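Now read these lines:
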Amino acid sequence: MLWVFDVNETMLDLSPIEGVFARHTRAAGLRTAWFDLLIRAALATTAAGEYRDFARLGAQCARTIGKRQGTPLDDEAITDLGAAMRVLPAHPDTLPALTALRERGHRTVALANSPQAVVDVQLRHAGLASVLDAVYSVERAGMLKPAPATYRMALHEEGVGADEAVMVAAHDWDIAGAQAAGMRTVFVDRGGRLPLPGWPVPDRIARDLIEATATDLP
């Protein structure tokens, strides 16, 4: 079985980004507002059939959040944000979950909205590159997740059918996109989120990656 993992929030911890906004705006709680706006921008871009570089989109959303807060972010702040995104730590459950999957003979890959150059640095810094068989950026597909074409790109590169792959993500929209591509899915509840209503229930709902990958899907 091919296990495909989302990167930001699913495998990597975004909490250090809070400190970047706090240093440059003296305000708390902006990390969540920024990432939610970034995801909305990505969803709107995808729905319009367009593609935008996810890192640049993140910078634009950060500037918007800064203006809304009354503290516009300068170039130094944007540089700090980009640097922080490249050195995010892995969630404590990520490495043991990936290791256990590989020991059971499964193939593990990452599928990220971030550009290839960014996600490669992220996963090397987080100590995860050695337990991933491949790392894919959606820029190869020319669309952002959750466009089904992004998941199909990864499946094509791996030479497997959708029924031979499972998508693991902490985002409802990512699960929905993978389902639309015909993949099996595991939703990881990071922060009390729920799967999207109106879509099929994921094959598994788990509290963390260890629970998500503890046993093979039936």
